[in-house]
Write the C-alpha cells for this entry.
Amino acid sequence: MAEAFLPPGGTLPGAEGEGGVPVAGPVSDLVAGMSPRTRTLVRAGLRACEWSTFPRRFSRLPRERRAARLGKMAAGGRLRRDLFLLLKTLSCIAYARDPGVQAALGVTSGCSRANGAAPDPPPAPRLEPEALVPPDGVERCDVVVVGSGAGGASAARALAERGLDVVVVEEGGYHDARDYETDPLAALPMLYRDGGLTFAEGRPTIPVPIGRCVGGTTVINSGTCFRAPDEVLARWRDEFGIPWAAELDAEFAAVERDLRVAPVDPATAGRNAAVCREGADALGVSHGPILRNAGDVVCCGSCPTGCRIDAKQAAHVGELPRAAAAGARVRAGARVTRVLVENGRAVGVRCRVEGRDEPYEIRARAVVLAAGAFGTPRLLLRTGATRRAKAVGRHLRIHPACWVGARFDEPVRGWDGVMQSWYVDEWQDRGLFLEATFTPLPFSAHWLPGVGEELKSGIERFENLGVIGVHLSERSEGRVQSSGRVTYRLRDDDARELVYGIARAADLLFAAGAVEVYPQIHGVPRLAPGEQTALADGQFGPGDLRLEAFHPLGTARMGSDAAEAVVAPSGETHDLPGLWVADASLMPTSLKVNPMVTVMACARHVAGELAARLS
Ligand SMILES: Cc1cc2nc3c(=O)[nH]c(=O)nc-3n(C[C@H](O)[C@H](O)[C@H](O)COP(=O)(O)OP(=O)(O)OC[C@H]3O[C@@H](n4cnc5c(N)ncnc54)[C@H](O)[C@@H]3O)c2cc1C
C-alpha cells in the first residue's frame, strides 16, 4: 500500500522496496501500541482493502494496479474514503518523517528569537513526577485533581496557592525538552492518547487528537492564546445562568501574564503568515497577528511533538511547577478508573498504575475532574451518581477544521517561521475563524491530493506550499460514551458554512498569488483561480468534507438548570456533592476561538469557588 501511495521515481525515494523509505514496519509498530479498539478498526480496514480486489489479493497486484485501486477507494463511498484517508495518513507520516526525504526537500528545523539570536536553553525542569504508591495503597489530601492539562494544572495551582493539600493524577508520563522524540512515530505514542488516532465517528469521521502526558494537550498544542469573545461569555451568563462568565477579565489577565502571551512579530512570522496577511490586505478583510505563549521565539514547527526548547508555556513548564512550588504533588502514569462515592458524596478516586495489580486510592475532601472533554464524561458516566444528568457526555463540540493548502510559484518555506501565526476574523459572526497554520511535513503530506506520482510530486513541491486552517464554531453536536467511543454528526448547515469558509480561505490564498488550492472536498481535489466562487452553492454535504478537529469541549456542560447541565455555575456537579469539574468539558457553547486560555481562566475561577467552600 505504501509503495502504491509513494512509488519510486522523481527526486525523492519511494516507500519500501530497494533504497526506499521503510513505512510498513514503523506503521505496524505504531498501531501495535494503540488501544484494542483502534487496532481492531485498522486491522478490519486492512483486511477489507486486501480482499476488495477479490478473487486476487490487493497485496499481490502490480504496483500500478494497487495505486489505481487506492484511487478508486478515494472516489468511493464514505466508509471506503475514511479507510483510504486513514491508510494515506499513516503511510505519509511514516514516509515524510524520514530524514533523507526532509533533507532532499531542504526542510530544516531550528528555533531563533525575533532578533535572530539563539533562544535560551530549555528551563531546568522543576517537576519530576512519577506514580508513588504508598505502602498501604491509600494517599490522602484535601483535593485530588484528575488530569494535568490546561484545566487541571490551572486548578491545581490555584488550589495549592490557597493553602490546600493537592494531588494531581495524570495517566500519561512526564516528558520535557530533555526527551521529546523528534521522530513523530515515536512522539505520537509518547505524548498523544492512542498514538494520535482518536476520532469522532460519523459522517465524515473526524480525527480529534488529544494529549496524554503530564501537561495534557498543552504539551502538543500550537500555543495560540485567545480569550473567548465577550458575546460568547455574555451568552453563558444570560442563557446558561453562569453569573461570573462575563466577569473573567482578571482571570484572563492573570493567565496571559503567566503564559507570557504576546502577538507574533510580522517581521519574523515567516512567509506563510505573510501569505495570509497579504491575501487579507488585498481583499480588505479584518486580520491580525496571532497571540502566542512562546514569547519572541520563532518556532521550528515542533509544537505538535513537544517544543524542543520548552519555550511554549505548556502546563508542565508553567502551571504545574507553580502548583508544585505551592506544595501540590503531581503523580504521573496513574489512570483514574472511577470516582469513589460514600454516603452520597465524592470522597476520592481509584487509580491503576501500570505494572501493579492492586488499585491505588487517593482519598480527598473534594475531587476535581479535569481529564479533558473525552476523559471527564467517561469518568462521570462510570460514577453512577451522575448518570441522572442526561447531558453527561452529550453536547460535544469539536470546532471542526479544514486544512486548506495552496501551491505558489515561489517558495513559501512555511517551516521557516511561526507554525500558527496569522488570523482572519472577518467572518467570525458566522462562526468562522481562519488561521495560517503550517504543520510539519509528516503532518501535512497526507493532505496533498492524489496517490502515486501525483502525491509524490505534491510532496516534492512542499517548499511552495502555503496553508490556512478554517475553523467553524458549529451548531452540530457529538457524544462521548462510557466505552470511550466518540460519535459526532455534522449538520448540513454547518457543512455549508465550512464550504463557505474554505472558499474564503481560497480567496485569501489566490489573492496572495497561489496558483492552485486544495480544498479537501470530495470530487474537488484542486481549484484554479476563480473556481472557488462556484463552491458555496450548497452542492456539498457533510460526507463530502475532509476535516480534522483540535478543540473538543462541552461534554459536562455548566449551567444553572440541573435538567440541562451537568455542572452548576460553582463548578460542582449538580448531582454529586464533592465532585467538581475544571476543564474543557465545562464549556456550554462553542467559543469561536482556540480554547486553552478560556479553559484556564474558568478552571482558576472554579478552583477559587472550591477553595472558598473548603475553607
Ligand atoms: C494539535 C493541537 C493543537 C492545539 N492548539 C491549540 C492552540 O494553539 N490554542 C488553544 O487554545 N488550544 C489548542 N488546542 C486545544 C487545547 O490544548 C485544549 O483545548 C486544552 O488543552 C484542553 O484542556 P483540558 O484540561 O480540558 O484537557 P487536556 O489538556 O487534554 O488535559 C487532560 C488530561 O487528562 C488526562 N486524563 C484523561 N483521562 C484520565 C484518567 N482517567 N486518569 C488520569 N488522567 C487522565 C489526559 O491524559 C490529559 O493529560 C490544541 C489541541 C491540539 C490537539
Notes: The chain has a mean pLDDT of 94. The two ends are 62 Å apart (CA to CA). The longest strand covers residues 360-369.
